[in-house]
Write a structure and sequence with these properties.
The complex is a heterodimer of chains A (about 200) and B (about 80). By secondary structure, chain A is an alpha/beta fold. Helices cover about 45% and strands about 15% of the residues of chain A. Chain B has about 80 residues and is α+β, with helices and mostly antiparallel strands. In chain B, a hairpin with a 4-residue loop joins strand 3 and strand 4. Chain B starts with 8 loop residues before the first strand and ends with a strand. Classes of the chains: A alpha/beta (about 200), B alpha+beta (about 80). At the A-B interface, helix 3 and helix 7 of A face helix 1 of B.
């Protein structure tokens, strides 16, 4: 590399190597421009906070946490994506989301012993009990939370692999749900996010 | 307690529970102009902590005052930008 500066010394000089590394004015200007662009990218990234949730469960009780956190984070100004996979897909399913069930077994906090909970029809009983409480307490329904979250700009993603596994169709989901995405998309969102949650 | 600022809008979220008071407050604030104050009426006891936390963690809003009444929690939020 040659330079036009008067500081250039001969190859024999003690500063010869250093002098050869002095970049031209044009090169410096280009580098400054490059750094300024990078800096503005970083600044832009800092302004938008991101949250990434992976929703894997489709029971009535487990459908609430991702939706409540997603809508609340959106209210805080976060860009939120919720990646729904396996039973989590049911939360985005127009019909199934209205009929999510609460399991009467496997939860020691339930008012019925497992032996009784395992009887036919008990899931329906515990689900009705929970639905009544949700109604009595004016707790938002799953459908309301989905609609609210979509209004607030939350991006709901339905995992393509499990859509096919469950034999669902794109039309089964609420309008605005993103389909045709996989684990790589979720990883990318998580890598960019300030908060990552698996529910 | 007296309130010494002009209220531009009142949002009634009485009866609603988490996360709706925060979510609806955010939507209502979006419709206000800079400097205007939103009054939020809630019955959810969690709204005292939640709306304060939301205002603290959100750019462009400021919690001016929270009043704990007998039945209703009143919150006054200014849009600052």
């Amino acid at each position: 590399m040659s330079t036009d500066t008067s500081d250039t010394t001969t190859e024999d000089g003690p500063n010869g190597d250093a002098a050869e590394e002095i970049p031209s004015r044009a090169e410096l200007a280009a580098r400054v421009e490059e750094l300024e662009e990078e800096l503005s990218d970083v600044a832009a990234g800092q302004n938008s906070k991101k949250m990434s949730i992976v929703a894997t469960k489709g029971t009535l009780d487990m459908a609430y946490p991702p939706l409540i956190l997603a809508s609340t984070a959106a209210a805080f100004g976060y860009d939120v994506t919720v990646f729904h996979t396996f039973w989590g897909l049911d939360i985005l399913h127009k019909e199934r989301s209205k009929n999510l069930k609460l399991s009467s077994v496997g939860n020691p906090n339930m008012p019925v012993p497992n032996m009784v909970g395992a009887l036919p029809g008990m899931d329906r009983v515990t689900t009705s009990m929970m639905e009544k409480r949700i109604n009595d307490n004016d707790t938002a329904t799953i459908e309301e939370l989905i609609e609210t979250s979509l209004d607030m700009g939350v991006e709901f993603q339905a995992c393509q692999m499990t859509i096919e596994l469950m034999d669902y169709d794109e039309d089964n989901f609420y309008d605005g749900v993103t389909t045709g995405v996989g684990a790589a998309t979720a990883i990318q969102d998580m890598a960019d996010a300030d908060i990552q949650l698996l529910v | 307690m007296s309130v010494e600022f002009d209220i531009a809008e009142t949002l009634d979220v009485k009866g609603a529970s988490c996360p709706m008071p925060v979510v609806q407050t955010k939507s209502a604030i979006d419709d206000l102009a800079e400097g205007e104050v939103l009054e939020v009426l809630a019955t959810d006891p969690g709204s005292m902590s939640d709306l304060d936390g939301w205002a603290d963690g959100t750019d462009g809003v400021e919690m001016l005052e929270q009043v704990e009444g007998d039945d209703v929690y009143k919150h006054y939020v200014r849009k600052t930008e």
